[in-house]
Amino acid sequence: MRLGSGTFAACCVVVEVLGVVLFLRGFFPAPVRSSSSSKHQAEPPAPEPSAGASSNWTKLPPPLFSKVVIVLIDALRDDFVFGSKGVKFMPYTTYLVEKGASHSFVAEAKPPTVTMPRIKALMTGSVPGFIDVVMNLNSPALLEDNVITQAKAAGKRIISYGDETWVKLFPKHFVEYDGTTSFFVSDYTEVDENVTRHLDKVLKRGDWDVLILHYLGLDHIGHVSGPSSPLIGRKLSEMDGVLMKIHTALLSEERETLLPSLLVLCGDHGMSETGGHGASSTEEVSTPLLLVSSAFERKPGDIRYPKHVQQTDLAATLAIGLGLPIPKNSVGHLLFPAIEGKPMREQLRFLHLNTVQLTKLLQENVPSFEKEPGFEQFKISERLHGNWIRLYLEENNSEVLFNLGTKVRRQYLDALKTLSLSLSRQVAQYDVYSMVVGTVVVLEVLTLLLLSIPQALSSKAELEVPLLSPVFSLLFYLTFLVLSAVHVIVCTSTESSCYLCSLSWLTAGGVMVLVSALLCAVVSALTKVLVRGKLLSKNAAHSNSRWSELDLLILLGTLGHVLSLGASSFIEEEHQTWYFLVSTLCLALCHDIYRNYLPGDDCEPQRCLHVEGGFDGATPALQDKNTSSAVLELNRGCKSPSSLGTLRGYEKWMVLASPWVILTCCRLLRSLNQTGVQWAHRPDLGHWLTSSDHKAALSVLAALSLAVIFALIQRRCSPASKVAMALGLLGVYCYRAAIGNVLFPWQQDNKDISKGILEARFVYVFVLGILFTGTKDLLKSQVVAAGFTVKTVGLWELYSGFVLLAALLLRPHNLPVLVLSLLIQTLMAKFVWKPLRHDVAEVTVMHYWFGQAFFYFQGNSNNIATVDISAGFVGLDTYVEIPAIFLTAFATYTGPVLWASHLVSFLSSEASSSSALSHAGFCYALIGSFPVSAYIILVTSLRYHLFIWSVFSPKLLYEGMHLLITAAVCVFFTAMDQTNTKS
Amino acid sequence: MIATQENTMKDTDIKRLLYTHLLCICSIILSIFIPSFFLENFSILETHLTWLCICSVSVTAVNLVLYLVVKPNASSKRSSLSFKVTRFVKCCVYFLMSCFTFHVIFVLYGAPLIELVLETFLFAVTLSTFTTVPCLCLLGPNIKAWLRVFSRNGVTSVWENSLQITTISSFVGAWLGAFPIPLDWERPWQVWPISCTLGATFGYVAGLFISPLWIYWNRKQLTYKNN
Question: Which of A66, A146, A510, B50 is the most buried (most CB within 10 A)?
Fold first, then answer.
């Protein structure tokens, strides 16, 4: 079967995506679980241990608190309460912390610091897996054992106001609820008013047991303007007022009841210096946890400093406080200060309950649990506890009793700490089998791509795909049989869960067929390459083509980037790698240009030096690439660039200046958004622009950028889409003005901030219109064979549609990124690629590099926190899943997508060679799949690295997403190529 | 006959090249150790700027002295004083220009624009001493000759060949020197521009070592066009 190399590459990348998905499924492990499902909850609580004498206390201890109010403030960082901001803006809370009847803690959240996993951690006490981030957007109901479900089962009446994640996680749990959606990031007042408006009524009524309030405004402020914004202080004061209201109401009600009530103030995660969250920096994981109750009396002068605890500890504490069984999967230990005021017997009982629960979890998750130190400590303390009970029941001397009790208590606390630590370390096993199969698929695809380089980049741009060749059928069936046997053996022998084994037999068989077919294809390609290599070595005429410096740079840069992915700092600072490579690329281009265009000694020096050796180490496959790349040129004709004489003066100067202009642009963009970790806190232009004092500057910049975008894009468009473009860009400005990011000159005060739905939809109409016109042109060129120009116009139209969409979705301070991207594309196309006649492979790789650099120029990083989810809600009234995901993905990957789209349009309009597009598609697939494959292997070997969850896993998700985008781009290339060949 | 004569000439040239390069390396090594006798608490990392100044001054001095003693291209026919003076002034201007160009390139590569200006500029000066000064000594202020030497096949003598190698290796050293900066090892030498200056120095020294050996190794293949 003969395939065009573009089609072939697209197929390869699609298969690779499947492999990566399989790998990801195996890589992200399920969290520590108790095997007994949450259905059988009727397990009796552990009775009090006793040595000899029988204790009669076998029931669960009664609740400590009559009412519990949980005030969860999204993105509440510890220093907002305990630091200088807390003192300044939260006077009542500070009073409670310093003098009131309260216990304060700094609770450490585990990454990923995203709302839904954090709520799960708070309520179940378990550590949710990393994959919960992906599920964060559509949170399904929580089935694990948790405090809320237990409370409901115990007949407590629960009310929840605030983030609707709660309602989704705990459907039918609340007697009353009002969910607010967390996706209108720009709204930070209404979202909290919707919570507070219920307070008065509810507090007066008092017919509830648990009240949960989740305030989102602070998080929204953080996302929009960062932690140093003046809005933060205002919001904190508002929250302080809310706390005061609740506390006084609780205190006044307490007089009528016997039991005290409990007020919990906590944050789900912190806020980084840039205002985002998701990663594991200290600012993001430190949250305050404040327990206020009249049971925690303290004498004046009793200073309590906030202790460091885990966020998961709250679940156990709440369960004990409400008189409920501790959630089965909880790895936290109960916050001892909360029960300190109780009699010794109760304290020990509570500690015993918690220890028993943790030990049970340990037994279920660790095969060799007897050897764990925590287990031994548990046994010792249980024995001591039994002795204590015996003494207690015999009513011994209270002094002795107290001393022994203190000792038992210390034993229990030690045991709890050890158990909790070893359990949180116990991340569930990786599903190695699925990982291996995924890796094999990816590596086979990569090998196939590498081996087919010489054929795919030949002038015909076609290659023989030996899938149906009968010679290999034997090998195919043999491998298939062997793999099936291995599959059966693996699935029947392992105890741990395995994704591939849980699939149906048909699907698993399909995977095996895929693996063996790919293996056959690789083998046949290998033999072909060997045969070709022999033929080529006979006529050694190909050795005259040499690597240019640019090719060498591209090769070394790609290899270096891939190798750098093995170091966590290089992943955190990957933007630096790309900026460095792009700058070097510009200098190399500059060198190329000056060598070709400056008047030198004109007598074309002959070759005097024969440098052998240096470049011979390259792989044979890549050498073949070299031989064939000599064939593909943008324009037919000799490769030596047009000499100086053919260019007019102005153009000559532009050619000479363009690398420097591009370098300057890159430098400007670099200072627009600081990303990464080490230098992320540095001041940058983006923050300066988004701060509320510089709104006028931002407005001017945005307006100017939109004007320049129009000026740069309109040359290529048809008149109709020119008008559409202009109106669309105007609409973008109106949208930004409507949601309050920028100002109109005639409207200085921004009173009415709306969601801008009308304006955004107005722009969408034009985006769709332009895209539709482009598609129509493309279809016309395919059906009517209207020729070359129609297709080119269609492609440029699609490109401008993408630009308009990007202008709408990018935040206003990022519009210069779009402008400079267009500017660089124009300069490169006009003054570098055309006059210097780079071959298709080089142009493709340069597009890829610039696309990557622009990904980071936008302010992205390899950290989940920098994804701008607000882009997914532009012009949408409510959260609609598919458009939201699509828009967020497009906004995040604007850089790579725009550059790829430019590549298609540029090649189809400039290259006279018909195979240019399929060559470009092949190169794009190759260079896109190379880092993913290498990274999968790196991550597998580093899976016990300290930073695996905080640094390597987010990068893995980014790589997976990037491969998906690459696959889409390759399919697009192929589609364009198909229309090309048909016309 | 002519061939053998050429070969012997080349051999003596290579020998002289080796000695001059050894002297240059010595000057760099001395610039590390000598100042500690005169200056209190001098070390490369802590008083990096001082070292940069001393190193560039000593390398420039050694290069000038060697140029005056060895005279690799004794082809300057005119030797009037005024010609020499204008040539010297031109060289100085070129040197300054190269310093500023390097500075601009560093900033474009991402060096801070406002902070650490002195550090960046001294790095530019050092890199210029490693690259521009030898070029000026050997080729003079002659852009055409420079372009010829640094285009692919334009080398006409052993000296120019070694110049090409040392210059490129200095650049590559400085380029590679930027790699450790993002790593989180928190070492004192990871601070901008120390790792880059050290990289450039290592590159220069390596170039000085490698170029005579490389030329000696490939002396059969190297045939220079004499004009």
Answer: A146
Exposed, middle or buried, A141 (CB in 10 Å: 0-12/13-18/19+)? exposed
- C-alpha distances (whole Å) from A319 to each of A122, A158, A247 are 11, 14, 21
Q: Is residue B220 within 8 angstroms of chain A, CB to CB?
A: no
More confident residue, B158 or A782: B158
Distance CA A285, CA A268 (A): 9
B182 in contact with A, Cβ within 8 Å:
yes
pLDDT over 80 (residue A957): yes
Q: Is the peptide bond before A29 cis (omega within 30 degrees of 0)?
A: no
Any idea what DSSP says for residue A833? I
B41: left (phi over 0), alpha (psi -120 to 50) or beta: left
Q: What is the maximal distance between C-alpha atoms in chain B?
A: 63
Q: Looking up tokens 């916050």, which residue turns up?
A: A335
Q: Reduce the DSSP state of residue A625 to 3 states and report it.
A: helix
Closest CB from A569, A587, A664 relative to B182: A569
Give the integer Cα–Cα distance in Å for A241 and A84: 18
Give the whole-angstrom CA distance, residue A934 versus residue A439.
Answer: 10
Please report the pLDDT score of residue A902 as a whole number: 93
Residue B110: its chain A contacts at CB < 8 A?
576, 579-580, 583, 667, 670
pLDDT in tens, A810-823: 988 999 999 999 99
Tens digits of residue pLDDT in A886-934: 999 999 999 999 999 999 989 888 766 677 888 899 999 999 999 999 9
Q: Which two tokens stand for residue A223?
A: 């996302």
Q: CA of A568: which chain B residue's CA is closest? A: B183
State residue A816's pLDDT score: 93
Which helix or strand (DSSP H or E) is residue B23 part of? helix B2-33
Query: Are B182 and A573 a contacting pair at CB < 8 A?
Result: yes
In this structure, are residues A853 and A579 in contact, taking their beta carbons and an 8 Å threshold? Answer: yes
pLDDT of res. B200: 95
Q: Are A288 and A104 in contact (CB under 8 A)?
A: yes
Contact state of B154 with A594 under an 8 Å Cβ cutoff: no
